[in-house]
Amino acid sequence: MASPHRYPALWALVGACASLNAFAQTSDDNDTPAVSQAQQTAERARYYESLANDNPLAISTYRLNYILPYTYDSNLPRMRDYREIGNDNPEHTELKYQISLKVALAEDIFGDNGDLFLGYTQYSLWQAYNDRDSAPFRETNYEPELFLRFDNDAEWMGWTNTFNRIGYVHQSNGRGEPISRSWNRIYAEAVFQRGPWAVSIRPWWRIPESRNEDNNPDIENYLGYGELGLLYTTAANHEIALLARGNPGKGNYGTQLDYTFPLFGRVRGYFQYYNGYGETLIDYDRRVNRIGLGVSFNPFLPGAAEETHKGYHDVAAAEAAQQYTQGGDGTEQLSSVQEEVARERRARAYFERQAQDNPLSLSTYRRNYVLPVAYNAKQPDRANFTALDPDDPPDNNEMKFQISIKAKVWDNVFGDNGDLYLAYTQRSWWQAYNSEASSPFRETNYEPELFLSFNNDTPVFGWTNTNNRIGINHQSNGRADPISRSWNRVFAEATLERGPMTMSLMPWWRVPESDADDDNPDIEKYVGYADFTFGYTRSGHEFTWLARGNPGKGNFGNQLEYAFPLWSKVHGFIQYYEGYGESLIDYDHYVRRIGIGLSFNNVFLGTP
Q: Is the model's pLDDT at 74 over the cut of 90?
């Protein structure tokens, strides 16, 4: 058992929760309507979270996931910072979005309470309309967390303490000097609810750094030592939230006002206003006055308007899903290959619908993984890295991770088939161990897609064509010239299954660009005109092979992956890439990389 002397902060929080629970037993307010509503809201949140944890095609939301196509800051971004990433002038108008997800790593560490989570939040400010400067990402903040959460039901003066957390958070903007910004914190958080109201208090302690490594030594003068959050949810599931941080002693504050409301399906309208300091790391000491309009894809908390037992109630699909979760993924003998394919299709439909109906989860698209070790045996491209750090070389070893999620926008566009999806995939190559260069993100590829998905059951030479897709894909690395890379494609994809085997062919057509706008005119000489994928799944183990290239030019790229079960939704993961096209910046640079880490979903069951 963990010693209180080794983990004093954790045990202090555990003790506080126990004290509140003891107090709750003597409280006379247990049955008030406000307390009852708070407890029901907390129970709904736990219920939806458990559904997401049990669903192989879902991933739990953490904070708000949103996109604001229009944001306007009346104060122009600081020129000296922007000059490090762009060649022209920044604009007042930017696109802003946030991705925030979490995965349960362990449950009930302390008897019947204390769950361990890995969380990840990323928000970006994209100069999407700044064509003069190749539309660079002005700022991206990466925020991984590891935290323990304790459920609670203690009551105090009519408020219910529903959750308590303690954790470690790293936040950085992935840049090299002189615009590198980062810090590490240990925090505690308590959430109190009363009727439609919720309050969170989150103090933190910054982990000290040496003067040589501290990029922002005065950040606490602007952001202070904690955050206060306030949320009000109406009966119609409209949400109004206020976030406040700052340093009263220095007279510096930052406040954010959010308003979300239901539109259709899981899509919610979203209005955001930020005023003050600390909106992002690069702007921690710059006053921002920004308004934004867009959509969000999950609520802060499930409101009373959410049905507690929404879901997909196809009995055959539920039985197929149960077989899958109990290990029946091709190991049992079925009367025919077609029956096995049909069972997997029903299971996929069940899990997809359940993920779609769960307000506190998003559906996975491709694989979500992190490779703490990703070693390239070939020498990394020094010429492109010079644009990030002219003095220090890139390391062969880096951290690689991928986030891939999707949301259904329109169900059954063509009668009883044809679903419209919005998807987003992001791959990052992080020089995490290159402290000499301030550990920058060497490359990030942003890949939004919009596609129509059609279910099918046509037999083809012993295989079954289970799914066909057509869509448009944008891919870019968010950099300014001379290392800007981007292209747009229209694609079609056919997926065929046969027992434990799956294969797909995805040809594409590149949307033409003018010579002046084309950052990579010869990219098809290296990555070709299609991707081919083959997969084999057995008892939760999954092997995949991805091939692309241009045979006429003798250029190829091959990726081999192997995922195997560890515990819960966590899989061991090995990835090997050889050839061209691993990333946009390396589309014409030969890579030989081996990576070892974890993945959080299988890939073929997730084909929509």
A: yes
